[in-house]
Design a protein that fits this description.
With about 150 residues, the protein is an alpha/beta fold. It has a single domain, classed as 5'-nuclease (Rossmann fold), CATH 3.40.50. The protein has seven helices and five strands; from the N terminus they run βααβααβααβαβ. β4, α7 and β5 form a beta-alpha-beta unit. α1 packs across α2 and α5 crosses α6. It is globular. The protein starts with 5 loop residues before the first strand and ends in a 6-residue tail after the last strand.
């Protein structure tokens, strides 16, 4: 029996599911969502916290409902420390520590792939290379960082 790939969804993937401002991205996200049964799907308390800050209560409830099928990973001191290491290495700017925290939670939570629509800080070749360099230095596993259409 083969083990399912473990994929971590950051907040942008949930948000895109209902985002009608970008119909193409919304459609691609919904298509991706239909394939989630092939994976062990992870998110984190950080994702739930970010979704909980969505202003529109109806939208907020719909987004949180999407996360109900996910295994929720906790954010502890080890994840915080790894996120700080990513920031110190220039993976993401310090003011975007939450992005580094998503990466750290995915890595320490045993995800094979982090799925995101964040092309500014996460879904970039340089981010993947630097994250995996730092991970290798620390004896941690590598992590793929992909946009939803790239998974599969």
């Amino acid at each position: 029996m083969t083990r399912k790939l473990r994929i971590y969804l950051d907040t942008s993937v949930f948000s895109a599911f209902y985002d009608e401002r970008n119909p193409e991205r919304q459609s691609l996200t919904q298509q991706f969502w239909n394939s989630l049964n092939q994976y062990e799907v992870l998110c984190s308390q950080l994702v739930l916290d970010e979704l909980g800050r969505v202003g529109d209560p109806i939208r907020r409830e719909r987004l949180i409902r999407l996360a109900q099928g996910c295994q929720v990973l906790t954010v502890g001191e080890a994840e915080q420390e790894l996120a700080r290491a990513y920031v110190a290495a220039g993976v993401v700017p310090a003011r975007y520590i939450a992005d580094a925290l998503h990466i750290a939670v995915a890595v320490l939570g045993g995800a094979n792939i982090l799925v995101s629509w964040n092309f500014q800080h996460l879904v970039r070749r340089s981010t993947r290379l630097l994250v995996n360099y730092i991970n290798a230095q620390r004896g941690l596993p590598s992590l793929e960082i992909l946009a939803p259409p790239e998974v599969g």
